[in-house]
């Protein structure tokens, strides 16, 4: 604090509290809606406080879903989301660690080409190559499979560059010492490089887990079988019900459940999250 | 970028890059090449025959007045999302910077919306803006403003823009806060000793020093608003009413998957790819400048 200005302090807190409330408001209202009885919501009286139907609504959503709209139990969809998020995060980290290791510690003829190939994937987000990617995945027979959900999203220029940057900052003496002691490259990688990258790996995992969990367009296109729906895309089927009003209390309970795991990860691992976010943009 | 100690092995490096290279080739470059090819072809309605049509698909897509509308709409949406989320985030970051009591708690309470999926953010605001049961929608109607985003295109556009901005505030907040904390306290103290008010200090010292962060965030926000708003739109307004919330990405999806106009959709994809390429290059230029400073 440069100087003591009580009035300024008051303004700070007022603005910050207003910001906190503004960000929380939509989620609070969604929670309120999710605890109402379905019929009461449609009657048009707006309330700001939860009512007593919490257990019924959440129980129904988690274990039954919404059969009329072809939506499987949300518990099931959350497991699918979890599998997709973890596999995408682990997969991206694993293949990026390996390729960054090759690019930094080896000289080989195609090195530059591979580097640029990975760089160019930054310019090909799923949204841009959506129709042909669908055709390729369909051609490989991977629609409605976990592999089909995960593989097209798993290449990562960001993670590769992050690890490359980190490996370049590791003192070269370490690799030299390992070599003199007779350790091969893979031994050096597994026993020295990966343990040194622990914090980077953890920070990146947090970011990539959220990225994977929140995927929408690709799971929407790559799954036709309800058994493979993820929660973030499954909710669309509950909102877009033809010719009728969505059953809002069920929709909102699903929304709350669908955002809970990634939000919990951010709150619990705030430090790693901020590090991952800032690092992955460098 | 060269590390001095290098392992020597003829095959190992290829083995190491193989998984990444395979995924990149099969799921990125091959589809991208297919897309390019499709953008030069036209298929008849039954998919029985295809003919080479050169750049016809591009000409058709780009001269369609609806495409121009969609383009302008996407640009407007990007500009609004970037402005709303960045200005809110900057205000909050400026307030949360330095020793404010409860700083950690405020930070936690301001960053969690980053984790909310865009589709879910859209659904939350869809409820709030609902004309019969949403708090904001009902409030506006009671105040005599006829509010119904189901029917009014401009209001649907507001819905999508606000939902997308709400989710993005946290991201911008993290970067603005990091930028603010990188400014040496001595600079601010010197200005304070010279008698500059907090307001003046912000605009003449802090704000200019945040320029690199702001430019970087501007690019990221524009990319976000171009692509990630797809989920917001698809989960709520579905591009309607009457195409009022259709963006470039939404149109690619709609023409390709719903309209089954593969050539037209592929040509639009190629145009989008060029936009992403330009933005990526801009982003890297900015980062270089940031690293050099």
Fraction of residues of chain A in helices? 55-70%
The CATH topology of chain A: MetI-like fold
How many discrete domains of chain B? 1
**Helix percent band of chain B:** over 70%
Give the domain tally of chain A: 1
CATH topology of chain B: MetI-like fold
- Give Rg of chain A in angstroms: 24 Å
| Secondary-structure class of chain A | mainly alpha
Overall shape of chain B: it is: globular
Low-confidence stretches of chain A: none
Find the CATH superfamily of chain B.
MetI-like
Q: State the fourth-level CATH superfamily of chain A.
A: MetI-like
Note the main sheet of chain A. Answer: none
Basic shape of chain A: globular
End-to-end distance of chain A, in Å? 30 Å
Can you tell me the CATH architecture of chain B? Orthogonal Bundle
Topology of helices and strands:
The complex is a heterodimer of chains A (about 280) and B (about 290).
Chain A lengths: L5 H29 L3 H5 L11 H10 L10 H32 L5 H10 L9 H10 L6 H5 L6 H13 L2 H9 L4 H12 L1 H16 L3 H6 L8 H9 L8 H21 L1 H10 L3
Chain B lengths: L11 H27 L2 E3 L6 E3 L3 H8 L1 H32 L6 H9 L6 H11 L6 H8 L10 H29 L3 H9 L4 H12 L1 H17 L1 H7 L12 H11 L3 H31 L1
Antiparallel strand pairs in B: 1-2
Helix pairs in contact in B: 1-13, 2-13, 3-7, 3-10, 5-7, 5-11, 7-10, 8-9, 10-13, 12-13
Question: Explain this structure to me?
Answer:
The complex is a heterodimer of chains A (282) and B (293). Chain A is 70% helix and 0% strand. With 282 residues, chain A is mostly helical. Chain A has a single domain (77-279), classed as MetI-like (MetI-like fold, Orthogonal Bundle), CATH 1.10.3720.10. Chain B is mostly helical. Chain B has one domain (50-292): MetI-like (MetI-like fold, Orthogonal Bundle), CATH 1.10.3720. Helix content of chain B is 72%, strand content 2%. In chain B, helix 3 (65-96) packs across helix 10 and helix 12 packs antiparallel against helix 13 (262-292). At the A-B interface, helix 1, helix 4, helix 5, helix 6 and helix 8 of A face helix 1, helix 3, helix 4, helix 5 and helix 6 of B.
């Amino acid at each position: 604090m440069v100087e003591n200005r009580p009035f300024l302090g008051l303004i700070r807190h007022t603005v910050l509290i207003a910001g906190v409330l503004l960000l929380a408001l939509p989620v609070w209202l969604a929670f309120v809606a999710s605890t109402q009885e379905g019929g009461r919501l449609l009657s048009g009286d707006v309330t700001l406080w939860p009512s007593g139907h919490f257990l019924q609504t959440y129980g129904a959503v988690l274990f039954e879903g919404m059969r009329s709209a072809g939506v499987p139990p949300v518990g099931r969809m959350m497991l699918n989301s979890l599998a997709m998020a973890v596999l995408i995060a682990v997969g991206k980290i694993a293949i990026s660690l390996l390729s960054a290791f090759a690019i930094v510690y080896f000289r080989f003829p195609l090195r530059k080409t591979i580097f640029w190939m990975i760089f160019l994937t930054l310019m090909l987000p799923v949204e841009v190559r959506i129709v042909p990617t669908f055709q390729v995945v369909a051609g490989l027979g991977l629609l409605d499979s976990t592999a089909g959900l995960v593989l097209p999203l798993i290449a990562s220029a960001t993670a590769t560059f992050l690890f490359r940057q980190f490996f370049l900052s590791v003192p070269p003496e370490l690799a030299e010492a390992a070599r003199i002691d007779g350790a091969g490259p893979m031994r050096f990688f597994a026993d020295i490089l990966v343990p040194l990258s622990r914090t980077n790996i953890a920070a990146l995992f947090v970011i990539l887990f959220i990225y994977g969990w929140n995927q929408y367009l690709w799971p929407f296109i790559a799954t036709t079988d309800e058994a493979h729906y993820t929660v973030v895309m499954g909710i669309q089927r509950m909102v877009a019900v033809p010719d009728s009003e969505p059953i809002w209390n069920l929709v909102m309970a699903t929304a709350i459940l669908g955002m809970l795991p990634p939000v919990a990860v951010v709150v619990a691992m705030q430090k790693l999250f901020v590090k991952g976010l800032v690092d992955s943009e460098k | 970028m060269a590390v001095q100690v290098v392992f020597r092995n003829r095959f190992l490096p290829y083995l190491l890059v193989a998984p990444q290279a395979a995924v990149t080739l099969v799921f990125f470059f091959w589809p991208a090449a297919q897309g390019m090819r499709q953008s030069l072809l036209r298929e008849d309605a039954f998919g029985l025959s295809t003919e080479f049509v050169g750049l016809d698909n591009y000409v058709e897509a780009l001269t369609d007045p609806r495409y121009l509308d969609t383009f302008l709409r996407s640009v407007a949406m990007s500009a609004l999302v970037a402005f709303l989320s960045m200005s809110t985030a900057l205000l909050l970051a400026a307030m949360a910077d330095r020793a404010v009591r409860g700083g950690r708690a405020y930070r936690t309470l301001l960053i969690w919306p980053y984790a909310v999926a865009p589709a879910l953010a859209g659904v939350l605001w869809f409820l709030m803006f609902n004309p019969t049961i949403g708090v904001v929608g009902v409030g506006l109607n009671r105040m005599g403003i006829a509010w119904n985003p189901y029917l009014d295109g401009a209001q649907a556009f507001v819905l999508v823009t606000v939902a997308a901005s709400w989710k993005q505030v946290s991201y911008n907040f993290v970067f603005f806060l990091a930028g603010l904390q990188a400014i040496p306290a001595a600079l601010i103290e010197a200005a304070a000793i010279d008698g500059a008010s907090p307001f003046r200090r912000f605009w003449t010292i802090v704000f200019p020093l945040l320029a690199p962060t702001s430019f970087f965030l501007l690019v990221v926000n524009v990319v976000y608003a171009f692509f990630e708003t797809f989920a917001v739109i698809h989960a709520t307004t579905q591009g309607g009413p009457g195409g009022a919330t259709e963006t470039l990405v939404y149109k690619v999806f709609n023409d390709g998957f719903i309209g089954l106009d593969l050539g037209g959709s592929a040509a639009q994809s190629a145009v989008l790819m060029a936009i992403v390429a330009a933005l990526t290059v801009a982003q890297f230029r900015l980062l270089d400048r940031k690293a050099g400073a």
